[in-house]
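Hello K.,

You asked for the raw outputs rather than the summary table, so here they are, unedited. I folded two proteins back to back in the same session to keep the settings identical. This is the first:
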Amino acid sequence: MKHLSAALLAALLTASPALAQDAGTITLGFGLGIVAPKDNNGALAGMESNIGNNTRPILTLEYFIRDNIGIELLGAAPFKHDISLAGLGEIGSTKHLPPTLSVNWHIPTGGKLTPFVGLGVNYTKFFEEKSSLGTLKIKESFGLAATLGIDYALNEKAALRADIRYIDIDSDVVLNGANIGKVNIDPLVASVSYVMKF
């Protein structure tokens, strides 16, 4: 029975359909992503800062320049994060947009499961900063991004995707016109999405 179960599992993972990723293919994905900044986000005005998590809808668009190699653009609805300082608690919030451009290698397996890895660059724009301490401004950030994910093909035109990204986000913070430090957000971004092939 164990051998039969193993054979059935192997057949499930390797049987068609597979989501083809040939040169010229375009995929479009819709899903949800959670941005989880690392702990201890740096000192602001001498106090340890903490940036909260947030979950929002995400969108991915990928164009395959070669078989199994795609250029992907990640977009999302604006994320909103609470900002806390040690000893003061929550002192404000901000929204941000984190468009990320990556080159992904989709590792061909011939089956339903296709893992992929990617490396790219992120641009993060902060806006609608609010603080009980005064006028808050968080400056824009450029940084590297790395992705690890997997697609599960539902048919030749659609797949379910799960991935996790590391994004380097470091931004100067200005309060009432004075620079009070830098936040090292450096989040992990975990997402699940439905991907369509065109």
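The second followed immediately with the same parameters:
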Amino acid sequence: MEKVPMTLEGFTRLEKELKHLKSVERPAIIEAIAEARAHGDLSENAEYHAARERQSFAEGRIAELEDKLSRAEIIDVSKLSGKTVKFGASVVLADEDSGAEVKYQIVGADEANLEQGRISIISPLGRALIGKAQGDSVEVTTPRGSKSYEILKVKFG
């Protein structure tokens, strides 16, 4: 089984989502199915089919979350250090074409949020940055073409 790297914050967020699905969503869906069944003919009962679809989605997400949480490798970013980019690092990059600076933190796939400056370790940019150090250049192929960045700073915590 492959471990799923994540920060403690990401692990906690997934646990919270799982608890919500099990304790709030699942009972609400069961109630909606029971209520729809009370309306009679299930073959033409839109409420019943919608509730069953919601149930299928929720149960699939519960299974997915349980799997990820069971394989989670929680990495305490505050205890990391070094000069090279690895999981948990915050990296300041300069776009070599425009000179614009951006800051990203390398996180697990479920924690990625570009608007918050958090990119996945498995994203093209995340993979390109791993193992690099301050002063290095990285080239990344994006849907809009190739982009080159210079690593201005690598920090942890």
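The domain at 4-74 is CATH 1.10.287.180 (Helix Hairpins).

Happy to rerun anything if the numbers look odd on your end.

Regards,
P.
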